[in-house]
Structure formats: C-alpha cells, structure tokens
Design a protein that fits this description.
By secondary structure, the chain is of the alpha/beta class. Among the domains are: about 180 residues, Dimethylsulfoxide Reductase, domain 2 (3-Layer(aba) Sandwich); about 150 residues, Beta Barrel (Barwin-like endoglucanases), CATH 2.40.40. The protein is about 30% helix and about 15% strand. It contains 27 helices and 26 strands. A hairpin with an 8-residue loop joins β1 and β2. α9 packs parallel to α14 and α11 packs across α12. The chain starts with a strand and ends with a strand. The structure holds ligand MGD (2 copies), iron/sulfur cluster (SF4) and molybdenum atom (MO). One ligand MGD binds next to α6 and α13.
Length: about 750
C-alpha cells in the first residue's frame, strides 16, 4: 500500500517541505507540503524529481573494490577489510598528514555528515582537511570570525521585512538562495518588490536581475571596491549611523573610514563600471531607508577579493544602521545547541607546501594538488572523499585528476562512480536519503525565520546496509587501528558520551541536572543520529532542558509535528552573540586591513608607497586574454551530481559558453559554434550560446560538467557532454586572506575550435 511521507528536501539550502507518495521503496509522487511551516507548499523542478534521483539505477547498492585495475562489486566486510589492510600502514609509515580528507557539499545537507564527519576527522588526526567551503563561502566565515568572533555567525537578509535589498553576486531565482535559507525565494522577492526595492549587482542580467527594480552590471571582481565606495560615501556625506543598541560596542569605525577613504565612487567608477552618481544615490538610499540590507553571495566570495568583499558587506550594513536590526542583516537563532566557541583565530597552522592558513580546522582545497605532488615529509598519499567530487568542483581539475590518479589509496563515500570516485580503491555507497532521518543543522543557522523541522526515514532502513554514520564511524575506528567488523554501537556511544560531556560542561546549554549519566539516560540506547540530535535540541535555546521546560523542544516534540515548528521571526542578537575577546564588534581586523593595498592597487587608487597590485597570476596569462570567465547555475542542476537525471536536463545542453554577441562577432563565433576556451591552466571545447545579458568582455560557463571520463558510471550524465569549467580555474589564483578558490573572473581566450 502506498503511504504518504512528509520530508524536508535535502537538495538545496531552501529546505522545502515535501509530501511524498511512497510505494514500497519508491517515491511515486512528489508535492510541496502545503502545511510546512516554512515553505507552505513551494516546490522547484529539482525537488519534484527527488524520487527519480533516489531511484537512479546508476546508484551503487554495494561497495566496489579495485581488483586488477577494475572496480568490482564487493561485500561491506571485504571493502572495510581492504581499507584496514592499507590505511593504518600508510599512517604508521608516513604520519597522519599523509592522509587527506575532502568533504563535499551534500555533507551539510545530511544529518549523518553533520554529526559524524567530525569524529572521523578527529580520528584521522590529519591537518589535510579540505571541504567544499574553500570553493564557496570560506571568506564569509573569515569575516564573521574576525568581526564577531564566531565564524558561524553569518548575518542573513531579513528578507520578509526589508524594504531595500542590495544583492551582489547571487541569483536566488535560480539557486533558490544561499547563506539565506528561505523556501520560495521567488515569492519572497516578489513580495519584497511590492513593498520596496530590489537592486541586483551582477555582471550578468540574470533571472533575478531581470526582474529586479535596478540592475547594476558590475565588472567581475570589483565588488569590494564598489562596496568601499558606498562606505566612503556614507562617511563623506555624514550618514554613518550604527544601530543604537551597538553604541559603544563597535571598535574601529574611524580606522575603517580612513583606510577606505581613497575608494570614492568617482575613483572606483572606471574599474567597477558603475557611475559615481548611481553609487552615491544608493548609499544615500541605504542610509535613509529604515529597513534595508546589503547581501553578497557566491559571486562575491569565490572571487579574488572574497574576504574583503564579505567584510565590506557587513561594514556597509553596520555603518548604515542595518546590522542586527529588523529588516536588515540579522543573526538567526537555530534550535540546536552550539558549543560555546572560543574567539575565532585563523592560521593556527599552515599548509605544508604553500603556507596557506588554516581556518575552522581546514586548509584551502586549492592547494590539495600541491600537497599530493610535492615530495617530502607529510606528503599526501591517501585521499578520503565524503560526498564530494573535487575533480569537477575544485580548481585546476586536470592536474587534480592526474594527482588523485597517482595516490597510494583513495576511498570514496559516494553513491555514484563519479569523475572523482572512479579513482577510488574502495567506494562505499551510503543508503538513499529516504532511508535516513533528516534535520538541517546547518541551514537552520542561516534561515530567515527560526524554524525546526525533523523528518523520520520515509522507508525502513535496509538491515544489510550500513547507514552513512556507520560508514563514517567504521572509517574512524579503522584509522585508529581497529580491525573490522567495528562495533558501531559502541563507537557511537563513545562519541555521544563526549558530546554529552561537552554539553553538560557548557554553561550556555540548557540542562536541568549537569550530570552525564542523567543526560545519557534521557537519550536512550538506540545508536545513531537521532539521539545525538535529541541531545542538541533539548540543550538548545528552545529545548526542554531535560526537565527544565516540559513544552520545550525535543526530538519527540518534533516527531509529533511533521510540518515543522515555527520559532518566530529573527530577533536582534548582539551584543550577546559576540564571541570576540572584547565582547565588541571588531570592524577593522588587521588580517583584512592588510589586504587593502591589493584592493587599492587593483583600481589604481593605490597610495604611492603601497605594494604593487597582485590581481591575477600574471606569469602565465594567455597573451590576448581579453575576456573573463564567470560561472552560472541552472534551475535544473545541482552542482555536479544531478546531471544523471534524464528528467532534469530534458535533453537540453546546459553546459554552453555564453558569449556576448559583440565579443562573439569579434572572434568569428556564432550561436552553436564550437569554441576553444583557454586559460592559464588548460583548455576546453564547448558550444557557444550568444547571450546579450552579459557584460561585454565577460563569458559564462557552468561548473560540474565533463562527466564523460573512463570509469564514470553515470550513463545519462556521460551522454550529456559539456566540459569541466574547473580545468580553466587556477589553483594559484586565490583570495589572499584565506585561500578560497577564485572561480569567477578567470582570464580566458576564446577562439573557434
Ligand atoms: N567553477 C566553479 N566551480 C565550483 C562552483 C562554481 O560556482 N564554479 N561552485 C562551488 C560550490 S558553491 C560548491 S558547494 C562545490 C560543490 O563541490 P562538491 O561538494 O565537491 O561537489 P558536488 O557536485 O556537490 O558533489 C557531491 C557528491 O556527493 C555525492 N552525494 C550526494 N548525496 C550524498 C550523500 O548523501 N552521501 C554521500 N556520501 N555522498 C553523496 C554525489 O554523488 C556527488 O558525487 O562546487 C564548487 N565548484
Ligand atoms: N539550481 C541550482 N541551485 C543551486 C545550486 C546548483 O548547482 N543549481 N548550487 C547550490 C550551491 S552549492 C550554492 S553555493 C548556491 C549558490 O547560490 P548563488 O550565490 O545564488 O549562486 P549563483 O547562482 O552561482 O550566482 C552567482 C552570481 O554571481 C555572479 N557573479 C560572478 N562573478 C561576479 C562578481 O565578480 N561580482 C558580482 N557581483 N557577481 C558575480 C554570477 O553572474 C551569478 O549570477 O546555489 C545552490 N543552489
Ligand atoms: S528549492 Fe531546493 S529545497 Fe526546495 S524543492 Fe527545490 S531543491 Fe528542494
Ligand atoms: Mo556551494
């Protein structure tokens, strides 16, 4: 008999509620859950195909191990035994840093990854921890860490109450939003525009820009200079008004104003391509609008001035009175307990080869190739990937592909044989997400309303298949020298004990009796993510506190409310949420001020005594690299891993090089022509699509394509064609502050193929 299951969609940051019709193991119908407290029935084309994605016949159901060069099906025991035969020996001979781990994006969309990747990292004791964060939002963590003391305290637009939103480098009508969890962004943006104004700053007239009230086509990579000009205008025109409740709580306003002074709207206009009057007018409008907000996303972080840009978004919000205020940029209060963090420090260690700084325990993935290919103590010989496809998603892909191919041992926890996992010696496929519980630990911390929503498994777990948390804990135990089979219940109990100890010791946690035994008893004996989540919910700010408040949140409370619990609109949270040493906002951190000469140099507003500009790696840029490449997303894609769904691509070629007609004409290219795109690192061939929505001089290519490689078992995606845009991105080209990859603004040469 088919049954109905209510579940949060795990595919993007919007966290929509789904109403699934489930027949046996299969989802036969998907609707938006009209009763979901947050999404109210909204559904996008990806969510509608969730069932098809889960049932994809190319998904692996058993592990694969390499025998005589071929990846053959194996039992779980065999697969884990293979790893146990080799991993500890490599660690013993070459040290823990010889093992690198890469965690991809779906880890933050899945409860097992959220809770159990950390114990695995701890067990590996390696410094070579990389995640998709450093090809994405790392600069935002850095600016939040430096300004507020907490890298996870990322202010999000209070989109339902703002009357003016200035949005840079984001296309939420396609991406459904990022670092701003809000189901039905199209609807929320429409409502905003009925109330007020949406201004989009983007080199392309995207779907979001097209429907905005104003579109400012900025030159890629110049956002920091332009935001600085907004700040400078506020200063020059005496419009600086930090929010009243932060009076006496902000350090460094004068320093920032003085440092940015050369970056006037007039000085930056030639570089940014936005005329000074428009910039000044917008600064005045921001100051005069009580509920207004500036927001920057991927186009502002995965670029050369990612950290400065992320910082300046907050600087402008603060100076214009819109940080931590209703309708401005606000800090969500997620329902789960988050351990009280010590004040943020970056650079506690550095990468071996290039000396790039650690942030939040990880190193930039842009230097993974160097760590693999450079001989010496600590050279990486093993790679573990969990829910990641770095060969398609990180810079200098051709070199990375070759480097991974030469490793001693590669282990991939992934449901597919992808461009990356085809290199694995052992592939461990997690069960489909339908078989697992779901709760968004990451995205409730970025949501435009405070909400909590738990989804139980929609289909009973397969007893013969380990859950993903069991896979991760088994890998952890093996790396600590245990032979499989590993007692994952015991391992989980140990992990939970440590978490309970930490909660009990944290004065900020809600716990009636601060005793590990008492709390552990409440949580029961059933191993896995549910009781771990229960701990975090009950000790969280709305929790039942294990007896403190019978109406408070717990897993049981959420189970009884399958459409979620609305915990209200965002509330101002400063200064209480600050984690800096002084308890103040540090608006002028040295780490960011140190990068200002590079910014001043890039727009020729450089003081005479400053260091020379270092905008792009000048050594190897193509001779006539007059064009710059940016990325884009499509409504029917999900990074690299949804291309295997025939129903999503609908036979359409989504991986085209969009070229402005003027640029195409100058190069003898026409619509549908084959073009060769060359950068400092490599070349790809793709079909041209003429596009007058682009800024002249800018071309666009989506990422995550290029699946047609030997060993990839994604039949639809392989036939799709397209090229890997990250063959063109350069691992040397990084944000100078934190090493985040530059994926937008790549100098390229385009010619007929
Ligand atoms: N040029 C360019 N490059 C980019 C970007 C860009 O805009 N331009 N965007 C960047 C961004 S923002 C991101 S987040 C990264 C993404 O980069 P990655 O995270 O490396 O790549 P994904 O394509 O998300 O790959 C996810 C992998 O996880 C697997 N997977 C899916 N679900 C599960 C699961 O439940 N468990 C496990 N274990 N595996 C699962 C999929 O099969 C897939 O192989 O790409 C970045 N790369
Ligand atoms: N359909 C779909 N949705 C997705 C994803 C997907 O692959 N497909 N991926 C998910 C992930 S992992 C993420 S991180 C989010 C990202 O979500 P968004 O941040 O909304 O990302 P994009 O749609 O890539 O939009 C980035 C925009 O930046 C612009 N841009 C490029 N360079 C610059 C620049 O220098 N300055 C400015 N101002 N703009 C620039 C590009 O033209 C583009 O419109 O999307 C998520 N949602
Ligand atoms: S917008 Fe995102 S969360 Fe909502 S249905 Fe689409 S993919 Fe799922
Ligand atoms: Mo991302």
């Amino acid at each position: 008999m088919p049954h109905t299951a209510i579940r949060t969609c795990p595919l993007c940051e919007a966290t929509c509620g789904l109403e699934l019709t489930v027949d046996g193991e299969r989802v036969t119908h998907v609707r938006g859950d009209a009763d979901d407290v947050f999404s109210g029935g909204y559904l996008c084309p990806k969510g509608a195909l969730y069932g098809e994605l889960e049932a994809d016949p190319d998904r692996l159901t058993t592990p694969r191990v390499r025998r005589d060069g071929e990846l053959v099906a194996a039992s779980w025991d065999e697969a884990f035994a293979d790893i146990a035969d080799r991993l500890p020996a490599i660690q013993a001979e070459h040290g823990p840093d010889a093992v690198a781990i890469y965690l991809g994006n779906p880890n933050v969309h899945n409860l097992d990854g959220q809770l159990y990747a950390r114990p695995l990292i701890k067990a590996l004791r390696t410094r070579n921890v990389h995640t998709a964060t450093s090809v994405d939002q790392l600069p935002k963590h850095v600016s939040s860490g430096l300004l507020f003391g907490d890298p996870l305290a990322i202010p999000v637009p209070d989109i339902d109450r703002t009357d003016l939103l200035v949005m840079l480098g984001a296309n939420p009508r396609v991406s459904n939003g990022s670092l701003m969890t809000a189901p039905d962004l199209p609807g929320r943006l429409t409502a905003l525009q009925r109330r007020g104004r949406l201004v989009v700053v983007d080199p392309k007239r995207t779907r979001t820009a097209d429907r905005a009230d104003q579109h400012l086509p900025i030159v890629p990579g110049t956002d920091a200079a332009w935001l600085a000009a907004l700040a400078t205008t506020l200063a020059e025109e005496e419009l600086i008004r930090p929010p009243d409740h932060l009076d006496g709580r902000v350090e460094g306003i004068e320093t920032v104003v003085a440092a940015l002074a050369p970056l006037t709207p007039e000085a930056v206009a030639p570089a940014c391509g936005i005329d000074a009057q428009t910039t000044r007018q917008l600064a005045r409008e921001l100051a005069a609008t009580p509920r207004a907000c500036v927001y920057g996303r991927l186009g502002t972080t995965a670029q050369r001035f990612g950290s400065l840009t992320s910082w300046l978004v907050d600087v402008v919000n603060l100076l214009s009175g819109h940080l931590d205020t209703v309708g401005g940029a606000m800090f969500p209060q997620p329902a789960h307990h988050r351990s009280h963090r010590r004040p943020f420090r970056m650079g506690r260690w550095h990468s071996r080869v290039r000396g790039l700084p650690e942030t939040m325990g990880e190193l930039p993935v842009a230097t993974l190739i160097d760590e693999i290919t450079t001989p010496g103590d600590g050279q990486v010989r093993t790679l573990i990937t969990v829910a990641g496809n770095p060969v398609l998603s990180t810079p200098d892909s051709a070199a990375l592909d070759a480097a991974i191919g030469g490793l001693d041992l590669v282990v991939s926890v992934d449901p597919y044989l992808t461009a990356t996992s085809r290199h694995a010696d052992v592939v461990l496929p997690p069960p489909p997400t339908l078989h697992r519980p779901h709760y968004d630990l990451s995205f409730t911390g970025l949501a435009v309303r405070n909400v909590a929503n738990y989804s139980p498994p929609a289909v009973a777990p397969d007893p013969d298949r380990p859950d993903e948390w069991e896979i991760l804990l088994t890998l952890a135990a093996i790396s600590l020298g245990q032979r499989p089979p590993v007692d994952t219940t015991a391992a989980d109990t140990l992990v939970l004990r440590q978490a309970v100890d930490a909660v009990v010791a944290d004065p900020a946690a809600r716990v009636a009796v601060r005793d590990t035994e008492v709390v552990a008893k409440y949580l029961g004996d059933e191993p896995g993510p549910d009781r771990f989540l229960d701990l975090l919910l009950r000790a969280g700010p709305y929790g039942d506190g294990f007896g403190l408040d019978p109406d408070g949140l717990s897993l049981e409370h959420l189970r009884a409310r399958p459409h979620g619990v609305d915990l209200g609109a965002l509330q101002p949270r400063l200064p209480a949420a600050l984690r800096t040493d002084s308890g103040h906002v540090h608006l002028a951190p040295d780490e960011l001020l140190a990068d200002l000469p590079r910014l001043l140099g890039s727009v020729d507003a450089r003081p005479a005594d400053a260091a020379p500009a270092n905008v792009a790696p000048a050594d190897a840029a193509p001779a006539n690299a007059a064009l710059v490449l940016i990325g884009r997303r499509h409504l029917r894609t999900n990074n690299s891993w949804s291309h295997n769904l025939a129903g999503l691509a609908k036979g359409q070629q989504l991986c085209t090089l969009q070229v402005h007609p003027d640029d195409a004409a100058a190069r003898g290219l026409h619509d549908g022509a084959r073009a060769r795109v060359t950068s400092t690192t490599g070349a790809v061939e793709v079909d041209v699509e003429l596009c007058d929505r682009l800024h002249v001089g800018v071309v666009s290519l989506p990422h995550g394509f290029g699946h047609d490689l030997a060993g990839v078992e994604q039949s639809v995606a392989r036939r799709q064609g397209g090229a890997n845009s990250n063959v063109l991105t350069d691992r040397r080209d990084i944000d100078a502050v934190c090493g985040n990859a530059v994926l937008n603004g790549i100098p390229v040469e385009v010619a007929p193929a």
